[in-house]
Amino acid sequence: MLTEKDKQAFQDYLTQEGLKFSEQRMQILEIVLQGVKHLTANEIYKNVQKRHPGIGYATIYRTLRLLCEAGLCVELKCEDGICRYEHAADDVHHDHLICTKCGRFVEVVDPQIEKLQDKLFKDNGFLPQRHRMELYGICRQCKK
Amino acid sequence: MLTEKDKQAFQDYLTQEGLKFSEQRMQILEIVLQGVKHLTANEIYKNVQKRHPGIGYATIYRTLRLLCEAGLCVELKCEDGICRYEHAADDVHHDHLICTKCGRFVEVVDPQIEKLQDKLFKDNGFLPQRHRMELYGICRQCKK
DNA sequence: TTGATGTTGAGAATCGTTATCAAAAGATAC
DNA sequence: GTATCTTTTGATAACGATTCTCAACATCAA
To answer: Could you give the number of structural domains in chain A?
Structure first.
């Protein structure tokens, strides 16, 4: 869901960094923050093409980086080596359940696991920064 | 630690698949299964070079695939996009604590987390296959 | 030793992503 | 609105890890 708040946040970020606003950046913002989640750069590229033919991959990647830096989107480095991008949920960290047959992504959170992860960091003398947890399996639909 | 058992297991696997034994494969087996863990293909390449100059990357990758298929080694797809290979521990799954400063890998296991992960699979109607958990932080040495 | 088959190494190809750079477009001052 | 200064853009080349191709070579059974 793309909100005015997100648009404003992006504009504010650009202004703050001395960057400029452009048609292309708005198009990419709209595609990434609305609708389907976990899009690859290629999917975003194809989507933007429809409304803005001629756009290049470089612009897609550059804008995705900006969106990440602005905290509006998160890059997921997936096992297949292709990055996917999702709308940054409001401060709520989550992990992913991924169907190995259809590629479906389900977002999950488990506060207990989060606590145990923190404990692992501490027990090993690590200063926690972030973590990544992906659960691969076969979803209900694909099991049938 | 490279054991005779591992060597035998690799030979058995090759025989079973109708494949042949070679000097290069033995060299790679020794490098990967002994000593330092979590080597990249490039590190393995450089190590094998010392004892067997002229070896090519193709052979490294082909042999790594064989070792994985034989269940002797595991490929880790890391966030930096470079795969690392570790000696497959005897049936014991483990996750990783990774220092973002020095790259140190620490293997960790938490049975409670494993249970909670299984619960997440079930609660979402997924048939569990495997998972990946990486905890990124700064290790004791690098904190100083 | 020979023949059939699997393996090797050099180099090309792949593919997602990033860098380069001249042309185009925003922002700002006038 | 126009001039001017930046920044942005898109085409294309470059990158780096990994895989493919293929002719030369090694292995093994008979």
So the answer is: 2
